[in-house]
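Quick one: structure for this chain?
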Amino acid sequence: MSAVLPAAPLAAPGTRLLGPRGWIAVAAATLVIAVGVPVLNLALPAGHPLHFSDYFVSLTGKILCYAICALAMDLIWGYTGILSLGHGLFFALGGYAMGMYLMRQIGREGQYQSDLPDFMVFLDWKALPWHWALSDSFAAQMLLVVAVPGLLAFVFGWFAFRSRIKGVYFSIITQALTFAAMLLFFRNETGFGGNNGFTDFKRILGIPIATSEMRVALCVITGLVLIGFFLMSRAIVTSKYGRVLQAIRDAESRVMFTGYDPVAYKLSIWTLSAMMCGVAGALYVPQVGIINPSEMSPAASIEIAIWAAVGGRATLIGPIIGAVFVNGAKSWFTVAFPEFWLFFLGALFIAVTLFLPNGLVGLWAQLRRRGRERR
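Got it. Here's what it folds into:
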């Protein structure tokens, strides 16, 4: 599956982080996120034609979280040639770490008015399990947001890459890993809410979540994190380190003969990608209001790969566009034609594979090239 789409050329030595147009685009995106969204939602009244409703603020924040996952996928699939079908696991682990903190923030406002989360009271638990020991500390849980996905990815990648597992075999193993984790989290005795997961959040850092101001703040933070990750990813792929990653993608055996250790490079970018997904999951949970084992389903991980493929691999901006396009279409299709959404998604991926091997970004570049030739 890693060879479905053609590889992009290696970045030239000395490539700038961004050109003038790129920096203008980043500045414009930052302005829209940091100023446009708050003004359109908070400053304009609900009846105004330009008012950005709370629903669309939450939807935008959710899609931006997905875009972070697509960007993380591009680093390992587009630039390193590693197709993961288990990134939904890292996303969910970050979400559960945030969810544990949010559950503790409920306090005695739950249904059972107990210091324990409601699901623990329902299961007749008398005390918090050991892995909830730091759940009332925001700083500790934010550390776990990146530490848990990163550690799991590092350990898994250490054994997989040293064993030279690659291609479709690696993809299948990652999918098996996320499926096993999903079954584990479905069990009530693990202390993660079982089938229902975590929900009914009240506040974060003592501030109520269900307010327009908090929704806007979370959306803005998510957008700024996405822009920060994009710039970080751009710096990576234009560096010597990034060129080695792309060389591994195109000819790993030749990289080994030149004296580089592909395992170290693959393991480091794989771990970083997992940590990015963990951050996305942590930002996702307070905006959506729930986290449960369904986020670990194999289908969720496959969708992340689809976003990257639809937008265009090895472009960084392409997977972001793909995530926005696919999830925007999903939001519309699931309301207008709910029974046809999965057929649309499948047809979209097939069409991109057959007719748009470089994704939407590749199509745009092709149209621009044709326009210049006609002139």
